[in-house]
Amino acid sequence: MARPSVQDTVSVTNLLTNKILIVHCRSKDDDLGGQAVAVGDSYSWSFETNVFGGTLFWCNLAVQDKRISFKAYEEYEETFGMWFVHDDGLYGKPKHFPIFKMAAWKRP
């Protein structure tokens, strides 16, 4: 018996100081393309999880000469539906826990 699909949403919010954020996310099946996100704005997308399991989205963030790559959503892990980008790095918000820092900016 196939397991039913579930609708889920992920968002990335730009909380940088006066900087445009470039967000590029993709899964195995979908490339969402690069999005320019203004300060204070969010980029979000909704999707149905894979009926066979294993839905996974990766994102790359870029601002000026700094980068962060991260797993934005993985079906079988604690779901991080909300991501917040600050000057010092990336923060995640699991559904039932407080916000915490996930990654620092890196220079290529």
Describe the structure.
The protein is mainly beta. The protein is 0% helix and 57% strand. The protein is built from no helices and 9 strands. The strands form 2 sheets. It has a 5-stranded mixed beta sheet, with no helix packed on it. Strands 3-2-5-6 form a 4-stranded antiparallel beta sheet, with no helix packed on it. The termini are far apart.
Largest sheet: 5 strands, mixed
Range of strand content: over 45%
Helix content: under 10%
Low-confidence region ranges: none
Question: Based on DSSP secondary structure assignment, what is the total number of beta strands?
Answer: 9
Q: Which strand order spans the largest sheet, edge to edge or round the barrel?
A: 4-1-7-8-9
Order of helices and strands: EEEEEEEEE
Mean pLDDT: 88
Structural class: mainly beta
Which geometry do the CA atoms define? globular
Characteristic terms for this protein:
five-stranded mixed beta sheet; mainly beta; 108 residues; globular; four-stranded antiparallel beta sheet
